[in-house]
UniProtKB/TrEMBL annotation:
A Pfam family the protein falls into: ABC_tran
Superkingdom per UniProt: Bacteria
UniProt entry tagged with the keyword Ribosomal protein: no
Stretches assigned to the ABC transporter domain: 2-249
Protein name per Swiss-Prot or TrEMBL: ABC transport system ATP-binding protein
Localization in the cell: Cell membrane
PROSITE patterns in the record: ABC_TRANSPORTER_1, ABC_TRANSPORTER_2
PANTHER family: NITRATE ABC TRANSPORTER ATP-BINDING PROTEIN (PTHR42788:SF7), TAURINE IMPORT ATP-BINDING PROTEIN-RELATED (PTHR42788)
Keywords assigned by UniProt, alphabetized: ATP-binding, Cell membrane, Membrane, Nucleotide-binding, Transport
Gene3D superfamilies recorded: P-loop containing nucleotide triphosphate hydrolases (3.40.50.300)
InterPro entries for this protein: AAA+_ATPase, ABC_transporter-like_ATP-bd, ABC_transporter-like_CS, ABC_transporter_ATP-bind, P-loop_NTPase
Membrane topology: Peripheral membrane protein
Record SMART domains: AAA
Length: 263
């Protein structure tokens, strides 16, 4: 359903600042796969998500969604199919708009402009219903400006917005990293339930190894622009974060030309 085929991306090529962010990356996700992505700083995790979203265009290779090559489509042309939540709670919502106006934007995503701009009563009820599931009481604050919400509340709302129009792929880039442990826990719980309820195909970047092992049905590890480890559900269920660190130590030392599969 999502296919990343021999994708490479080099920033500032042929200069002293050259950065090979992705090197011949192959990744295939089945419908409903929930894949956690780990790797050190600069490993290429965000670049991988950015090439799927169309924010960055790869130099080589193909990205396809539902069997359609979307490599040439710009980010806004993929927006109906791709939902995203970023690390920064400020990034996913519009602070000067109210909760219901933000949800209205999410509701209209990927649809023609001009249709049903206002927030009707029926819509308001649907928004309230969806907000209830967050268990933050936001359903009673539909007219509140989003800028007044806490980071955790905004991130929960960002998640709801990113998934509201049933994207084909959900991309989460360290979306719990800026939150305190309790809020991070809440957003992780919400993530699991929305992904499960909607059966969303998901890529989730995290630096939290425990979270990477607990969440999802598959784990990949990146290093220097390559996927160096790809672990399926059965193996993942048995691994500890110590095992992951040990694997990382083993793998990153070697020159890894091929994906190492441990499924
Ligand atoms: N827009 C950009 N312009 C130039 N270089 C970039 C850009 N985005 C990423 N890079 C470089 O590409 C490499 C991979 O970066 P990327 O952001 O994908 O890493 P990451 O795995 O997400 O790291 P982190 O864990 O720190 O978020 C790094 O060397 C980075 O400096
Ligand atoms: Mg990153």
């Amino acid at each position: 359903m999502l296919k990343v085929d021999s994708v490479s991306k080099t920033f500032f090529p042929h200069t002293v600042n050259e950065r090979r962010a992705l090197v011949d990356v192959d990744l295939q996700l089945q419908e409903g796969d929930f894949v956690t992505v780990i790797g050190s700083n600069g490993a290429g995790k965000s670049t991988l998500l950015n090439t799927v979203a169309g924010r960055i265009h790869q130099d080589e290779g193909v990205v396809s969604l539902d069997g359609v090559d979307v490599s040439r489509l710009k980010e806004h042309q993929r927006a109906a199919k791709v939902g995203r939540v970023f690390q920064d709670p400020m990034a996913g919502t519009a602070p000067n708009l109210s909760i219901e106006e933000n949800l209205s934007l999410a509701d209209r995503r990927g649809r023609p402009r001009g249709l049903s701009r206002g927030v009707t009563r029926a819509k308001r009820e649907r928004f309230a219903e969806a907000l209830k599931q967050l268990e933050l009481g936001l359903e009673d604050r539909l007219k509140t400006k989003v800028g007044l919400l806490s980071g955790g509340q905004r991130q929960a709302l960002s998640l709801l917005m990113a998934t509201y129009s049933d994207p084909r792929v959900l991309l989460l880039d360290e979306h719990t990293a800026a939150l305190d442990p309790q809020r991070a826990e809440l957003v992780t719980r919400l993530t699991r339930s929305v992904v499960q309820d909607k059966g969303l195909t998901t890529l989730m970047v995290t630096h939290n190894m425990v979270q990477a092992l607990e969440v999802g049905n598959r784990l990949i590890m990146m290093h220097e622009g390559r996927i160096i480890l790809d672990v399926g559900a059965a193996k993942k269920a048995q691994m500890t974060s110590q095992d992951l660190l040990a694997e990382f130590g083993k793998l990153k030392g070697a020159v890894v030309d091929d994906k190492t599969l441990l499924q």
